[in-house]
Amino acid sequence: MSRRAVTITSLELTDPEAIVLPVRPAPPGLAIAAVHDPAVNRRLYEEIGADFRWTDRLGWGAARWARHAADVHTRVATVDGVVAGYHELRPDATGVEVAIFGLLAHARGTGLGGHLLVDALRAGLALAPRVWLHTCTHDDPRALPNYEARGLRVFDVRPG
């Protein structure tokens, strides 16, 4: 596998009025709910992350996943009861980080990402006045355009 330069882009949102709703309607049967199960965090991280080089957590055992899940707010999207994606929100000193945002392969390109991101932004802003995230050039090519289309603004771009 060839190595290409990685660029990390950081984005933020501080104004709830700046959230832009998706033009595409939500998929019928979409539900997004809080989940408190470290096995769900682990499974979704591993399954979604396999497509995007998510490796930071691959060596974690059950105890580490349990500690992590207790420190984040996890919300899972389902469509007609089938898991489609999730996000993890992690409060920190600067606001709330969207620490993980991802869709399973079958849900990519369906318009679900915009709706799940709006959920992450609203849930984050309910916890703090600033929501922020990082994306990189290893992520799905639709990620950055989705983030900007929903109202997030770039505050930093750097090599990774």
TrEMBL record:
Pfam families given for it? Answer: Acetyltransf_1 (PF00583)
Q: Which InterPro entries does the UniProt record give?
A: Acyl_CoA_acyltransferase (IPR016181), GNAT_dom (IPR000182)
* Domain annotation N-acetyltransferase: ranges: 21-160
Report the coiled-coil segments. Answer: none
Listed SUPFAM superfamilies: Acyl-CoA N-acyltransferases (Nat) (SSF55729)
Q: Which domain of life is it from?
A: Bacteria
Know the name of this protein? N-acetyltransferase domain-containing protein
**Organism whose genome encodes this protein:** Paraconexibacter antarcticus
